[in-house]
Design a protein that fits this description.
The complex is a heterodimer of chains A (251) and B (478). Chain A is an alpha/beta fold. Chain A is built from nine helices and twelve strands. Chain B has eleven helices and 23 strands. The chains are: A alpha/beta (251), B alpha/beta (478).
Amino acid sequence: MLEIRDLHAGVGDVEILKGINLTVKAGEFHAIMGPNGSGKSTLARVLSGHHSYTCTRGDVLYKGKSILELPPEERAREGIFMAFQYPYEIPGVSTQEFLKTAYNSLREHRGQTELDAVEFYRFLKDKLQVVEMDPSYLNRPLNDGFSGGEKKRNEILQMAVLEPDLAVLDETDSGLDIDALRIVSEGINRLRSPSKAVLLITHYQRILEYVGPDYVHVLMDGRIVESGDGSLAQHLEEHGYDWVRDQVATA
Amino acid sequence: MADKATIQAIADQEYQYGFVTEIDQDKVAPGLNEDVIRLISEKKGEPDFMLQWRLRAYRHWLTMKEPTWQNVYYPPIDYQDIVYYAAPKQGPESLDEVDPEILETYEKLGIPLEEQKWLAGVAVDAVFDSVSVATTHQERLAEMGIIFCSFSEAVKNHPDLIKKYLGSVVPYTDNFYATLNSAVFSDGSFCYIPKGVRCPVELSTYFRINARDTGQFERTLIVADEGSYVSYLEGCTAPMRDENQLHAAVVELVALGNAEIKYATVQNWYPGDKDGKGGIYNFVTKRGKCVGDDSRISWTQVETGSSITWKYPGVILQGDRSVGEFYSIALTNNYQQADTGTKMIHLGRDTRSTIVSKAISAGHGNNTYRGLVRIGPRAARAKNYTQCDSLLIGDQCGAHTFPYVEVKNSTSNMEHEATTSKINEEQLFYCQQRGISPENAVGLIVSGFCREVVKKLPFEFAVEASRLLGVSLEGSTG
């Protein structure tokens, strides 16, 4: 599904990612952890094609093809979704209108006919149940005046609508209370299937208890320095990152 | 990626209505003097009172100076180089006799001129250069006592109404362009809704400037008698020309006791090319007067065309408890300039006014909101709410706000809110990440920004307005 080969990327002259190697196969769930400033969010933004970042070396293959030259909307239409750490507000544009525009862009790309407002609403109503959101949300302007938890649930709603093959979740669990965390986790679990993959970036081991990742990686100073199964997260929770740092220093 | 090049590409979309209709024209030689005015009046077969009014205006105009206070820039206009009268030679008696080429032009503009469009609820008085070529549904409206005809017909058939109301809101001495219009106006629309009648359809005029170098000077007068209601739509397009064309219209609205007038404009005149060459100068005086108690006048405008837009549709709130509203979207792209806003003059007690202005600047566009709220000494408990929002796309454009306030009654209440925002790259990226192209993303953000105003438009116009905003912004992301 996703193959990152020796990826170097940064902003201007500052290199942030310094040689990332990572392979994610269909059906897998990977978690990426790491201290602040290690490059986690940069990785998510580079994968989705943010124009502030330049890739200086290496490649990113998605479904066997390099995507580095593709604009963000092309990547999205090919099935890459990123849940934003800080979702943006679009005043005056209802959540439903935004979702319909996004979903129809995808359908157009696949050569399908666009759904009209009524058809789309029917489709959307089922998706709302996934994130336990009231239909009244749909008429509210996108993320405008939403609480932090509502914004994150809205990201999961968008993911449920767009049904991506590869979901990159950038700290979707941060700032959530226990109920919202459960709802978001269920939304993520619902997406999981043998044909889809998830890459979750997080600070906390807490969400991993709900979603049970297949692999956990530690990102430090722009490199993946440690990989393991779910138990690695537990170990990090108990012992912090210092031991990894020591290990890197010794090596 | 949403870089400047992409944004530029969207802004570069060309004006779609730039075609010229080849028909025989009856034109007066360029230039202006009393003989030209007499000739215009004679060609139109006007009664003497009309000619005298024109001449008074012309003589006053000679004493006036062109204003310079506005925040727009253009080379000097040679008023002796303008053609003041052009009419299609063939004078139609009915819709069947209208020159097929003219009908075809309207067809391209998508104007519903056919009789069956009555069912769609639109009655159209189409102005083609200076003469109204076709007025539909007149008879059916006439059964209700509603008069809806060209201004020329009204001068001949309803001289008493014209004498009573012409210049009652915008006197011929009002300002340089209104005075010029009063002297040379060619045609326009007249509408009278009798007491207690609710006009069952949206009345609509489609102005179109066609002849080369023809300044167009329409005059519109709408009178809503006591307890009546009318909604009026005005839409404009012009063919593409290299020379700038002057458009100096006057619109007067009169609302008597408990009457309501809604006036909506979607203005899509040729804005000039991407380097700022050509385009229409739109210097227009629009004003309504809530003469009677409990009357209401509302202006809604969507301004996407013209190289220069300069107008302030206002309301004089004379009657007690009368209400004035102004909802505006002004979009400037490339080298377009707009200096627009409103005047709300509160004279009566418990009068209320609402101003919502949405200005969008892209490319090198320059957008100015200029508004005056005046509360007179007698206007106890008058209320005004003003909201001015500006949206900037790119970093070469400008937005300016000049709110003027004069309050002479201490029991009044005024609120003013203003915001300026920029479509930022993160917002665009967010949309792109959801599979939405940068062009559609800008369209989406702009439509959200304008939503409050667009929803005030009649449904058909709202669809048209949203489409126009999209077209006008093509090439503006960056």
